[in-house]
Design brief:
Blueprint lengths: L1 H6 L2 H4 L1 H12 L7 H12 L13
């Protein structure tokens, strides 16, 4: 996905988001896909059996 976004015309996704993504990548500050997945799986596996709906933004 990072290469796909960097290759897109900034007009496709917006100048500011494109510039921020390219800068973050160049600075080596992008997280790997496994990092958020690990956190999410931890929440799903240990939710105490509440069947609570999770807000991914929280």
């Amino acid at each position: 996905m990072p290469a796909y976004i960097r290759a897109r015309d900034p007009a496709e996704i917006g100048e500011a988001p494109h510039e921020r993504f390219v800068r973050t990548h160049a600075e080596g500050r992008l997280i790997t896909p496994g990092q958020p997945a690990k956190v999410l799986l931890g929440h799903l596996a240990f939710d105490g059996g509440t069947a609570q709906i999770r807000d991914a933004a929280a």
